[in-house]
Write a structure and sequence with these properties.
Elements lengths: L1 H12 L10 E5 L5 H9 L4 E4 L2 H8 L6 E4 L17 E5 L2 H13 L4 E7 L15 H8 L5 E8 L7 H21 L5 E4 L5 H6 L4 E4 L1 H4 L11
Parallel strand pairs: 1-2, 1-8, 2-3, 3-4, 4-5, 5-6, 6-7
Bound molecules: pyridoxal-5'-phosphate.
């Protein structure tokens, strides 16, 4: 089941996005067992993302052979558990997090690769910089010596209006391109979950985070941002 879903998805993204970029599949592994995750890796998943630091730690040694991403809301007091272990933090959503991350990363002589989280739909339930503020945020975040900004991450609002979603996605891509022009480290636009990834890829996403469509419905429901 999992292996079939992974192979089907990898085949669907094999030709890249319309911008000529390779698409990275990140398996969103919250609530999944190490066995399920290892099955996905055996089928071709190269990158996995956890939402909670506790799960990131618990499964770290039980899962083999994938880049470890952190995709959930990150509390400053939990940063220490990601230092030196995290391939990409998708949820750099505020300056006090950047301050603490800088401190911890510097002490460990490590550089944290991060995406700036954008609250695409301006939703109260989600964190991140607004589309209007993300360029200013970038100009400030890029100054932290032990943080390397690699791109942007966003979650679309739940909405039936495809035109509206498309225009939000394209706004993200436009800001991404503006930042990318001035910074060779920028290469990831992380946007797209099980329900909306095709639309996101059409509009220029090059990194998708899929849970349900790879592993099936989650038995324990977690709020996406917890
Ligand atoms: C859970 C989660 C996903 C994947 O969601 P699905 O709808 O199960 O594909 C992607 N991104 C983040 C940040 C998540 O928390």
């Amino acid at each position: 089941m999992i292996a079939d879903n992974v192979k089907k998805t990898l085949a669907e993204i094999a030709n890249g996005n319309p911008y000529g970029e390779k698409i990275t599949l990140v398996a969103a592994t919250k609530t999944r067992t190490p066995e399920e995750i290892n099955e996905a890796i055996a089928a071709g998943v190269t990158d996995i993302g956890e939402n909670r630091v506790q799960e990131f730690r618990d499964k770290f040694d039980l899962v083999r052979g994938a880049n470890r991403h952190f995709i959930g809301h990150l509390q400053t007091n939990k940063i220490k558990y990601l230092i030196g272990k995290c391939y990409l933090i998708h949820s750099l959503d505020r300056f006090d997090l950047a301050d603490e991350l800088q401190k911890r990363a510097e002490k460990a002589d490590w550089t944290a690769d991060c995406l700036i989280e954008v609250n695409i739909g301006n939703e109260l339930s989600k964190s991140g910089f607004s589309l209007e503020n993300v360029q200013d945020a970038y100009q400030n975040l890029v100054k932290y010596p032990n943080i390397r900004i690699r791109g942007l991450m966003g979650m679309l609002p739940i909405c039936e209006d495809t035109q509206h979603l498309r225009s939000l996605c394209l706004s993200m891509r436009k800001i991404y391109d503006t930042i990318k022009e001035q910074d060779e480290n920028i290469c990831y636009l992380s946007m797209g979950m099980s329900g909306d990834w095709k639309l996101c890829v059409e509009c220029g996403s090059n990194m998708i985070r899929l849970g349900t469509s790879l592993f099936g419905p989650r038995k324990i429901q977690l709020p996406v941002n917890d």
